[in-house]
Amino acid sequence: MKNLVFAVVAAVSVLFLSGCVSGNRYVIEGNGESLVDGHWMYVMDGEDWSILDSARIENGSFRIEGSDFGSQTAFLYMGANSAPSGLYQVSDIVFLEPGNVSMEYMQDYDMFLAYGTPMNDLYSRLIIEGIEDYDDPLDLVRNNRNVLGLVLMDGFLVMPSKSETEELLDGFPESMKEHPLYVRLRETVEAIKADVGLPYCDVEGKDTDGNVLRLSDIVSRKGVCYVLLDFWASWCAPCREELPELVSIYGQYHRSGFEIYGISFDGNQQSWKDAIREFRMSWPNALAEFSGNASTSPFWTAYGVSGIPSNFLIDASTGEVIAKNLHGEDLAAELETLFPAEAGFQTEAGQR
């Protein structure tokens, strides 16, 4: 069934990319209690944020018929007028492809999702169901060499290794290689200095005492076999959720040569220190220096981080990154392979 979905999406996308002529149009319709009569619904381009089209909301509904596809991605914004300060985002990504798009309000997400055309149907299904059922999530990109594939690479999927990402990008048709999202992804990948199969790139920050602490200090420390470079922040809910298990894993394997170097993107130093104390993070931790958004950090760019939590497992004997984004059971399974004696000891101890 999934292969059929991929085939349909790919076929329709090829038609769209090869024949986006003036006669092609899209229709976007929606209704709901949250829509304000007399206000306007704007189709905002997902790349340059220009207004592609709009329609007045009447009787709690709207209908937009447009022919400007822009970057082929858009978001719906509602407001009394087009002044940016008064606009309110009401939808997730809407893929602009020929056909009729129905916007459905999803209570759990507090926003509208788009249905009715191939890319919108598949994306909305992934938002709701996730990608856990896919043996190889990258097949979603391989079978969608279009703007949907680019969006999935940009934020929905955990980016694979640099070489795998380059291979995926190389597979897109020439007609997509000038798309602004493709260009941005290519620039991001080219800027990556450390990844699986490559040497680690040094990272530094100040520890809780205000002293400079470098990743290389930990990797070269006597007795250390593997180091988990962990990008996190106290304000990051997923980071906090995984910390108790990470503390447990650290306690099990630390004495065998497993170490963690935590680098935080906290803007508030006290919140960072409080989190370290609250979760009893006994491993080396440093606070990154950056201005504005965390993504401006050179470390973020060098490791191709798309969000946190994000981590990289380093073999201290070679300095090579051997795995990345291992969380919970996946991290435990990897360390069990690297430290079989310790894992066996723990298993036997648990049986006694």
Give the fraction of residues assigned to helices.
Answer: 25-40%
Secondary structure tally, helices: 12
Task: Return the average pLDDT rounded to an integer.
Answer: 88
Order of helices and strands: HEEEEEEEEEHHHHHEEHEHEHEHEEHH
Given helix and strand content, the structural type is alpha+beta
User: What's the main sheet like?
Assistant: 5 strands, antiparallel
**What sort of overall outline do the alpha carbons produce when their principal axes are compared?**
elongated
Rg to the nearest angstrom?
Answer: 24 Å
- Uncertain ranges: 1-23, 345-352
Distance from N terminus to C terminus (CA atoms, Å) equals 47 Å
* Percentage beta strand: 15-25%
* Count of DSSP strands: 16
Overview of this protein structure:
With 352 residues, the chain is of the alpha+beta class. The chain has helices spanning 2-18, 118-129, 139-142, 147-156, 162-170, 180-190, 215-219, 237-253, 269-279, 298-302, 329-338, 340-351; strands at residues 26-31, 40-45, 51-56, 61-66, 73-79, 88-89, 94-95, 99-106, 111-115, 204-206, 212-214, 226-232, 258-264, 285-287, 310-315, 320-324. The strands form four sheets. Strands 2, 3, 5, 6 and 7 form a five-stranded antiparallel beta sheet that branches. A five-stranded mixed beta sheet has the order 14-13-12-15-16. A hairpin with a 4-residue loop joins strand 15 (310-315) and strand 16. Helix 11 packs across helix 12 (340-351). The N and C termini lie far apart (47 Å). The model is unreliable at 1-23 and 345-352 (pLDDT under 50).
What structural keywords apply?
elongated, alpha+beta, 5-stranded mixed sheet, 352 residues, 12 helices
